[in-house]
Design goal:
280 residues, two-stranded antiparallel sheet, single chain, alpha+beta, 5-stranded antiparallel beta sheet
């Protein structure tokens, strides 16, 4: 790619190293200087000499390509086709408005969303929270099948009282190869199956008909206690959707804030006589 440009860069490396005023490249009378390249550098990341040369080479080649293509476009488009001022002005205004809106949101948006608000939204919009995958709450652990604590773990993993949970957590920390005990957290069933060698069943049928499983695998055994589940096409659980609901509420607040700000700004401009409409 741009072999000649690459040769030019190599010839100018000495000039680059001492930041000479000699241009790195020239295309249709336009000149590229090392200072132009330097302004784009990320000073927080150090590069090797080879990487620096490659990055410089790519920068110059891209600059040459842009110059050549722009020249060719300028040469082949009519005056009307080259008139992009209206588009540029519209884009500039759109960008400025967007940045101002983001500033308003940053400065004024109330980001405190209560549990009551989220639950109220969930109850009012349950039809929008239909699951497309199975989710579960569970406890599981993986342990050597000859571990002396295995009989105790089999008993504890099926108990819900706090004392048994604490005992199980302590034993897992010392003896389990892998474990997950937070059965208040919803997990996607497909993710669980990546961790546990479950038998091949229809997932919905399996979840409905199994509460506790012991799954041997070679020298290991998996103990699984299913606490709760929701199958696909059923209504999701509030806790599983909590983060999503919070984002929705904040998005709604952002839209309302922007609309109100736009109305206030427009009314202020009209009140100050800065806006005139002549439709007659």
């Amino acid at each position: 790619m741009y072999t000649r440009a690459g040769i030019v860069i190599l010839m100018l490396l000495n000039a680059c190293s001492n930041k000479s005023d000699k241009p790195l490249a020239v295309a249709y009378a336009k000149k590229l200087y090392y200072s132009d390249y330097e302004a784009t550098l990320n000073t927080t990341h150090e590069l090797t000499a080879a990487d620096s040369l490659q990055q410089l080479n790519e920068f110059v080649n891209n600059w040459i390509k842009d110059c050549v293509l722009a020249y060719k476009a300028e040469e082949n488009l009519s005056a009307d086709e080259k008139d992009v001022n209206t588009l540029l002005e519209a884009y500039k205004n759109s960008l400025l408005v967007f940045r101002y809106q983001q500033k308003l949101i940053t400065e004024r948006l109330d980001t405190n969303v209560t549990d009551k608000e989220m639950r109220s939204y969930f109850e009012a919009n349950k039809d929008n929270f239909i699951l497309h995958k199975n989710i579960v709450k569970l406890r599981f652990l993986k342990i050597n099948n000859d571990n002396r604590t295995l009989p105790v773990m089999k008993r504890l993993i099926r108990r819900d009282e706090a004392k048994s949970r604490m005992q199980l957590a302590g034993l897992c920390k010392m003896h389990a190869i892998n474990y997950f005990l937070d059965d208040e957290t919803w997990l996607e069933w497909d993710d669980v199956k990546k961790e546990i060698p479950l038998p091949a069943y229809n997932d919905e049928h399996f979840l409905k008909n199994n509460k506790y499983l012991e799954i041997p695998e070679g020298e290991f055994i998996y103990l699984v206690h299913l606490q709760d589940y929701r199958t696909q096409q059923s209504t999701s659980d509030f806790e599983f959707e909590r983060d999503k609901i919070r984002k929705i509420i904040l998005q709604q607040r952002s839209i309302a804030l922007i609309k109100q700000a736009e109305a206030d700004i427009l009314n202020e401009a009209i009140g100050d006589g800065q806006v005139q409409v002549n439709m007659e």
